[in-house]
Every structure is written in structure tokens, then in C-alpha cells.
Write a structure and sequence with these properties.
204 residues, single chain, 36% helix, 6-stranded parallel beta sheet, 17% strand
Length: 204
């Protein structure tokens, strides 16, 4: 039996992670928080424009969305963005249902999907050929989920998320080019800078 899908078609245009990250950072005018996942995602976030409201996840796959959820709940008046790779999201897929249940209006998630574990050698992910991460997000209850058709559509979806009712997830297909630059790998300094940037702690 063939049943017509009601979920959006997976985007087929392959874009560049650094370009998309730069487009997002260029839109940040109100001390929005941005959480970058491990590896190339946070390398590109750092290179796109280091800000005290950026948090760079080191060493643990799949925690960008959960960390961003915590920030969004703790500071509901602050817009929070999370950037995560497809391989990392597979490690913490259950967070999508939690986010859908808690429904923070101020959270926008971006899944950078190139179908590989790029930072460890570009091994294909188990989901690469068979799974639609946006459809999975919708199935978890994240109704505001869509693939970006191209760069302009990505910017439109980012703008739309600013007034959305509930959290937003945006899927983007990306190439396998390495991240630009490198994050300073001092987790204590990253945490302290971020806490000060959010106004949760005074600078020493």
C-alpha cells in the first residue's frame, strides 16, 4: 500500500555550512545566544563572528540542542539558536520529543546534514540513505520543522522562526568541506565567557 507523505520533501540543494552560519550570525542584533555543536559546526560559528553569547560544545556529541533548550527555558526573553550536525543529533534524538513537550517559543534549531561523521573521517551515518531528520522532528511533535530549499529560503525560515509559536527546526543539506578556523579549546573559558555574555555571571 502506498500512502502519500504529508511531510515536506527533503531538500536537494547542497549548501555550505560556513556560508549558512555567516548568514545567521549577520542577523544577530539583540545578544541572541548561539550554541554550536562539536567539531566543524562550532569551528564555523567561531570563524563567522565570535561573540560572548556563543557557546562552543567540546567533546560530547548531541548536546547542542539540550544545552540550547536549557538556555531558552532559563532566559525566555532571549532568542536562542542551536547548530548541530546530523551525526550528533543521532546521538541524542530523544531531545526532540523533550523540546516538543516543553515548547519554548524562543528556540530555533538548525540541523547541518551531510550524511557523514565528518570530524572522525567522513564515515556515513546510519541515517544517511534512509532517514529524513525533518520528518523525524515532525513525528516527535516539532510542527515548525522544514528543509531549507536554498540559502534564501534558509534566511526566510530563520526570520520566520523569530515569531513562531513554539520551537523551530530547520534542516539544511551541506557539503563535506571542513570547518573554517578552529575554536580555542578551553572549556572553562568557553563556559565562563558564555555565562558572562548571558548576564548570568559578572566578569571577573
Amino acid at each position: 500500500m502506498n500512502i502519500a507523505s504529508t511531510t515536506p520533501a527533503r531538500n536537494t540543494k547542497v549548501m555550505n555550512r560556513f556560508d549558512l552560519t555567516s548568514r545567521l550570525v549577520a542577523k544577530l542584533k539583540n545578544e541572541e545566544a548561539v550554541v554550536g555543536g562539536i567539531g566543524n559546526t562550532n569551528f564555523d560559528l567561531w570563524a563567522a563572528g565570535h561573540r560572548p553569547q556563543n557557546f562552543y560544545m567540546l567533546g560530547s556529541m548531541g548536546l547542542a540542542f539540550p544545552i540550547a533548550l536549557g538556555v531558552a527555558l532559563a532566559q525566555p526573553k532571549r532568542r536562542v539558536f542551536a547548530l548541530e550536525g546530523d551525526g550528533s543529533l543521532l546521538m541524542q534524538m530523544g531531545c526532540l520529543s523533550t523540546i516538543a513537550t516543553l515548547k519554548p517559543d524562543n528556540l530555533t534549531m538548525v540541523v547541518m546534514d551531510n550524511g557523514v561523521y565528518q570530524i572522525t573521517g567522513a564515515q556515513p551515518t546510519p541515517a544517511a540513505a534512509v532517514s529524513d531528520l525533518v520528518a523525524i522532528a515532525i513525528g516527535c511533535g516539532l510542527a515548525n520543522s522544514a528543509w531549507a530549499a536554498d540559502e534564501e529560503d534558509f534566511e526566510r525560515l530563520i526570520d520566520q522562526s523569530l515569531t513562531a509559536s513554539g520551537p523551530t527546526l530547520i534542516g539544511v543539506r551541506i557539503d563535506d568541506k571542513p570547518g573554517v578556523g578552529a575554536t580555542r579549546r578551553d572549556p572553562v573559558q568557553i563556559r565562563e565567557r558564555f555565562m558572562v555574555g548571558l548576564g548570568a555571571r559578572q566578569a571577573l
